[in-house]
Amino acid sequence: MSGYPDEPSGHVSASVKGAASRADARRNRERILRAARDLVHGPGELKLNAVAKACGIGQGTLYRHFPTREDLLVEVYRHEVDDLVAAAPQLLATHPPVAALAAWFDRVAAYARVKRDVFAAVEAATWRDLAAHSLGPIGEAVELLLAAGRSAGSIRTDAEAQDVIILIGWLSRLDDTELDSRGPRLLAILVDGLRTPGREPGT
């Protein structure tokens, strides 16, 4: 005997089938979140049937992952926060601290669009809860970036994470036109303000 009874008979074990099913479910979930993130910026209310159509799945599959529109919107926001927080150490691994901070601010601008549109679409109690729970992880990401800059001497020593969070908070209040036209310039001004006095750009 081979010791692998499923192989000669051509049968796939239950564990393999289960792993494949879970992988399919994860892929579907990611596709749903990507489609919803794109569609939440569109005109009118986000429709679950539009999300299902955009990612080529049945509505039943979508409802198994997200029973309500608010469930989906909440997860879109949480996913965006997770990506934003994860970007901080990734950028520090490949960029000097000030450049990493500037690149992270580019991600913040994209996050601000999602935050604005999701918060406008969910109940007030929901967005207050989301804001309260995301503040800590985002603050930790900011502090990681600032601490690296302070250690390298390129970020001013009196800069605090809460300062940055307050200053970038206005981004989610801007419409798309303002974000596109003013956002990059205002974030560049913020980076210059955080830089150690006397340090040249890029140092």
UniProtKB/TrEMBL annotation:
Record SUPFAM superfamilies: Homeodomain-like (SSF46689), Tetracyclin repressor-like, C-terminal domain (SSF48498)
Region Disordered, annotated ranges: 1-25
Domain HTH tetR-type per the UniProt entry, residue ranges: 26-84
Pfam families per record: TetR_C_43, TetR_N
DNA-binding region: 47-66
GO molecular-function terms, A-Z: DNA-binding transcription factor activity; transcription cis-regulatory region binding
Entry keyword set: DNA-binding, Transcription, Transcription regulation
Protein name per UniProt: TetR family transcriptional regulator
Taxonomic classification: Bacteria, Bacillati, Actinomycetota, Actinomycetes, Micromonosporales
